[in-house]
Amino acid sequence: MSFTYIASAADWARIAPELVLAGVALLVLLVDLLLPQTGSVPREQGAANFFVLPFLALLGVLGALAATIVLFVVGDGQRAFFGLVGSDWGSLYAYLAILSAAGLGIIFSPAYLKRLKLVHQGEYYALFLTAALGMMLLAAATSFMTLFLGLETLSLALYILCGFVTRRQSSQEAGMKYFLLSSFASAFLLYGVALIYGATGTTRFGARGTNAFPGVLQFLQAHPQSTALLLIGIGLLTVGFAFKVSAIPFQMWTPDVYEGAPAPVTAFMSVGTKAAALVAFARVFVVVLAPVVADWQAVVWTLAVLTMVGGNLLALVQRNAKRLLAYSSVAHAGYLLIGVVVGGATGLAAILFYLLCYAFLNAGAFGALSALERLDNSGCDREDLRGLWFRRPWLAGFLAFFLLGLAGFPPMAGFAAKYYLFLAALQGGHPELLLIGVLTSVLGMYYYLRLIAAMFMEPAREAQAESLEVTPTLAVAGAAGTGSSMPRVSGPLGRTASPRGGGASSGAAGPAVAVKVAPQPATRRAPAPAASEQLAEEEGLPGRSLVWTTWLGLGLAALGALALGTVLPFWLVDLALKAAAAL
User: Fold this and answer.
1) Which of 208, 320, 481, 542 is the most buried (most CB within 10 A)?
2) List of residues 6+ apart from 336 with CB closer than 8 A
3) DSSP 8-state class, residue 546
């Protein structure tokens, strides 16, 4: 049997956002070769390297975002390349979350890289765009082969980005741990794909309401009886997807990788990977495997409950802000799995809207931490954040804003996202998930507010240590014949201790008078190396000229989170419903 397929211009137009990112990634590498190589280390001190390359990468993200909007308006919503890649509204909606996270991550990067003196700018931003490209392919995949291609594209780029800080052991550990565990998860997923192909005879998903590209969906509609081969394949797929979305008990990689990776990379991957994997998860299970929903719904229900409860409980005991946000991300994955259990247009729309809101909140929180993180990966512990309001009030205010949004306080986007997700659980006939979600959200408020309290209500470590150094000293003067006074150590009233320690003196007793010794001038201890490094960073040194990029990213993230919680929810939820119907 021969097969011939020639790509048309319409096929290339349907993947225009991916083409823009791929082209700009190559362009970034070429421009990097042309920029001046100055400094003791090549490219270390070239100002153009720290501005031109991120600016070009950001233009690529904006171009992909513009192409996405164009496809929303004039696109035909059909699948490209013989049913391998979708251009439906569901895929385009996921692009909005992925590109928002990528754009914010790029904006947070210049000051961070300059401050930590990280070179190889071209590779960094090219890998950033390549990871975003893989995420978009994963979210738009309508075939198991395309799904695996997108998964590996984003994973390979993120392996390198997580270990990008070569002088930091935790960064190298994060890259290696993510590589090893993700490889195992990819193997599980690929084995599941092979078994499903063996059970159905196709790797295409199949489209609802049309037989233009028949696939697994059409096979299961014609043969609704599950075979052992199909059930094992579904189980292995569940393991692979659960790892990518950080669902318990497959979350063990998340806190270590999030803590060790550079903060801008964590801001990007914590949102983009979850958005792409959740959309692919929902498309495969809610749409493709809908005829056999009874075989997998109980498993996903259990994953959702374990992830919501376990993620919040594990976050309670964290003292590092990045690890706390990592377990918070695990808990949010549990909330998103509610939409997979509910299914239908309501559940899918709730997932899409939640991901868009989560993109601005979580990326903004990690962006604020990127301004505090130092080369040795310190600066994000709870002790380091104590008194941040008194040292850097604007940064503390932004971080508190994003933490409150993640906790679900109005009017930030987190409240609107959880409201529509829990409403979908109620409308979908799962009030138990609604109750568990609300209770765990209340539990999550504790660790968010505890971190905020440390920033606003507790003194910094250095200030507390200095306050303990200056204490009034009381001395007891015995009125003897000479009129001299000695500190009282022990003995009855009026009898001072012998200087030689031989007991109390037998001199004439006199009235005991408490005399306050003149306070000695307080000597300020030299700050610890980490603290002095932080003071140096706050006052100006490498990266000071680019610090405005961090403030720009924080401002954009805050505006997006506020708009999604107040002005845009009604329109975007309606758009999400239409997008969910097209998945």
Assistant:
1) 320
2) 245, 274, 278, 351, 354, 355, 421
3) G
